[in-house]
């Protein structure tokens, strides 16, 4: 009998301590889920006030040009305002070119440049063209129109360096933010910066009359280095295709902000949009209102300062 009561006492003690353990464990889980333990996440920036939104979401009243706000203000904008700002900005003109000249194919492959006297390439002009995809129509047209020396770059064509036609020098090299080679789909690509390419060709002391960039998303990697290093400072005209997204879905706010901040850096560098064109291959439906929008734009800039 005494042994039975001893066994029951032991079982009761084990049950009591087990209950205390599981209750405390559950309480710890609740504490963790409630955020009782401090996190290292940065605090969310305070959203813009109504006055700030009116100031930075409307064009300059003096010239009706939409100017991007400071980057720290962009970080405080709600997603819908960020999306609206990007599409308004990328589709707006900032400079009037009297004579816009289209060179190359009328569809994909041709580009619009400003042929006003102030920006027209001179007789010793120099052009860099990134992204060929077997289409030299723009490069050939530049030579025919102005007699420029053209350096064309594309590592994706699996083609050796050569002289294409008259004064077009092809380089089997890609544009990025460093000078490290890489492998794409099992094929080695030689890569480099804009400054490194100019150095190799002996062009650091020569102004660039036209820079063309169409490199399928790689612009977002290459452009920060080009802006930071100052290699865009002697570029007269800059034509580029921006790929916000190439899928049929709204980009994230992080992608919108990254693109907007680079566009602001380009503006601050002294470039102004004189021509913009939607590439309808990249169209998608917006998350807000289901409006149809475009994720790829061919944009032409001239340097004004």
UniProtKB/TrEMBL annotation:
Molecular function GO terms recorded: methyltransferase activity
Keyword Repeat: no
GO biological process: methylation
Keywords, alphabetical: Membrane, Methyltransferase, Transferase, Transmembrane, Transmembrane helix
Signal peptide: none
Chain ranges of the Methyltransferase domain: 89-248
Keyword Nucleus in record: no
Residue ranges of the TM segments: 6-23
Pfam families: Methyltransf_22 (PF13383)
Family annotation (InterPro entries): Methyltranfer_dom, METTL24, SAM-dependent_MTases_sf
The name this protein goes by in its record: Methyltransferase-like protein 24
The organism of origin for this protein: Mizuhopecten yessoensis (Japanese scallop)
